[in-house]
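Let's practice the habit of predicting before peeking. Look at the sequence and jot down your guess about where helices and strands might fall. Then scroll down.
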Amino acid sequence: MTTPLRIGMIGCGRIAQAAHLPALAKTDQLTLVSVYDPSELLSSQVAARYGVTSSVTLDDLLATDIDAVVIATPDRFHHQLGMAALSAGKHVLVEKPLAATVAEAEELVALAAERGLRLQTGAMKRHDPGVSFAHDALPELGRAVSYHSVYRVPARRAPIEATLFPDMIVDAEVRAVENTFKSSGNRTGYLLATHGAHVFDTLIHFTGLPRWIRVHGSQVGEDYTWHGVVGLADGGVGSFEMTVDVHGDWSEGIELSAEHGTIRTRTHQPFWKRASDVEVFLERDGFSRRPHPTDTNAFKLQLEAFAAAIAAGGGESPSPQDGVAVVRLIDAAIASAAAHGELVTLTEPALR
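Done guessing? Here is the structure:
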């Protein structure tokens, strides 16, 4: 395996330009070699900006001397592109969620295992050093008793993103198609998938796959909200709120109460690239721990964790199985909300 790892970028749109490409430029563990996008405008101009080649087709990119790919496309394309990359012997970091359906996600996981390749979902919030600090404390806290999370996206985030994003290369035709897709048809399902991928990955990361889930959703004007209750893997109970949009500031965080202590996190708008504010309290100590990390670019840290997993031959975070579990939770949340809060079982009850 080469050092640094040679990376191909599949998809040159918003998330690639705002997150993955700048992060690649900030690490010496991976190097961008070539990009591919069906939009010749995006592919050629992004390639020129980063001084790399522009592959004309996906096959051309996969035939390039690269070790891995980052798939930065809408999730409806993840399965097709991921299967092609894995079949070509490339490790894959794919934007969240892992795939559009559980069956597609499981097929990706099976092929990665068969080929001995790494498959990591782009749940970059796991690599926020504040969140990592909190997660590292879990073995000392014991079993989770109560878990609550909020994820509230502000309606006026566009001006903030315009401030924080690099100058964006835009294909107006592609953007029009994507805007139409996001606003028509099953918008509820789209929002639950794109935002729920973060909410549910954090839940799984801290408490495991829930035993069951109930979700109620509502729409007021152009604003959507979902409130859910879950049966935690260790027997406790959790809840979550996800609102898109709120007419105020970004609001995100978790509160976890366990047998021997508590965790509280407050996570900032991701493109500020700030670490979450975190407080970990262990009852035996009688005081709270609050980290003050300095390397806080979760998108860069995610790429470096991907490189480390490739070098180690495993240890992706999220694991491929966690990627599948998130898609299962998304599907279960959609089904429960559509049935006005009907309970959806996810795992067999744990034996005590």
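How did you do? The longest helix spans residues 187-207.
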